[in-house]
Amino acid sequence: MFFGKRKKAGDLPETKREQPTNSLGKRNMSERADAGFSFESARICLLEKSARNGWRCAGLFGLTTLLCVAAIFKMLPLKERVPYIVEVEKTTGTAQVLQPVGEERAVPHSELMDKHFISKYIRCREGYDNRTVAGDFEIVKYLSMPDVFEPYLQQFKRKNPANPDEKYGEKSGVRIELTSISVNQATDSATVRYIRRVVSNVTNRPVETSYWIATIGFEYFPDYKRSEKELLENPLGFKITSFRTDQEFNSKGLAVQPNVPSPATDPAAGLRPNQIIVIDPNNKEETGKYLPESIREEVEKSTGIKPKE
């Protein structure tokens, strides 16, 4: 009392809070405890339910994986290995993958159109036939850009020694056989390999054969205001923008030309108009063996010798 802390004026005396001891307070605490237990129980139930769902999904995915693996193993005996045959040209060394008989390969329509116009252009420009040269000339004109068409036009000048009309005329012609067309649509270019044969119109036999490669650039310029004749030949406006030809060479650096039958082994090989072949009527095996009907008549009129069969 004498050494105690002196109380300040206005301070209230300290009192202890008494805990509720009545039945109402106990009931409130019980309700709070039950609510806490219910929340914890709900959380535990939710976690257990999530775990069960997770295991179910894992089991389902595992079963699906097993079924897929079983299906793959069951399909393995049905797998067929198709061999690819690569053909190498004996004279040029050009390799080409042969397509099995009956196998259909889907080709895009755009690629088919490119190959159609390219093959048409090569046949008309590189080939020659005295009967169709005028039509081929127009087609080359319609399918070429002016700078590409100019060299083709110059070769028909009368003073040009390489003029096809003067070089071949009615005696012979040039036939084109396309061996491959590779189109690169990303760069609008193509590489064409073809065989060029000079064929005699009298004997219908090749007198000269050579192998060539053409490198072509092309583009489409649709224009429907052109003439009807041009639209019929080139409705899509296909134009050759660059054109170059190179003769193929073998490993020795020589132009590839297969052996042409000589007159010694084939009497009709290399025969020209107004050229007479002397035939021995006593040789029954060789007499007239290789001569067509038109040549036989010419020989008979000129020599008086009738070839035997």
UniProtKB/TrEMBL annotation:
<protein>
    <recommendedName>
        <fullName>Bacterial virulence protein VirB8 domain-containing protein</fullName>
    </recommendedName>
</protein>
<feature type="transmembrane region" description="Helical">
    <location>
        <begin position="57"/>
        <end position="76"/>
    </location>
</feature>
<feature type="compositionally biased region" description="Basic and acidic residues">
    <location>
        <begin position="9"/>
        <end position="19"/>
    </location>
</feature>
<dbReference type="InterPro" id="IPR032710">
    <property type="entry name" value="NTF2-like_dom_sf"/>
</dbReference>
<keyword id="KW-1133">Transmembrane helix</keyword>
<keyword id="KW-0812">Transmembrane</keyword>
<dbReference type="GO" id="GO:0016020">
    <property type="term" value="C:membrane"/>
</dbReference>
<dbReference type="InterPro" id="IPR007430">
    <property type="entry name" value="VirB8"/>
</dbReference>
<feature type="domain" description="Bacterial virulence protein VirB8">
    <location>
        <begin position="38"/>
        <end position="248"/>
    </location>
</feature>
<feature type="region of interest" description="Disordered">
    <location>
        <begin position="282"/>
        <end position="309"/>
    </location>
</feature>
<dbReference type="Pfam" id="PF04335">
    <property type="entry name" value="VirB8"/>
</dbReference>
<keyword id="KW-0472">Membrane</keyword>
<feature type="region of interest" description="Disordered">
    <location>
        <begin position="1"/>
        <end position="27"/>
    </location>
</feature>
